[in-house]
Amino acid sequence: MTTAELVVLAFALAMDAVAVSLAEGLRLRRPPWRAALLMAAMFGLFQALMPVLGWVLAFWAADAVSEATPWIAFGLLAIIGGKMIKESFEDEDDHTTPVVTVRSVLPLAIATSIDAAAVGVTFGVLEVSVAPAVTLIGVVTFALSLGAVFIGARAGERLGRWATLVGGVILVGIGLRILLSHLLG
Question: According to its UniProt record, what is one Pfam family this protein matches (predicted)?
Answer without folding.
Answer: Mntp
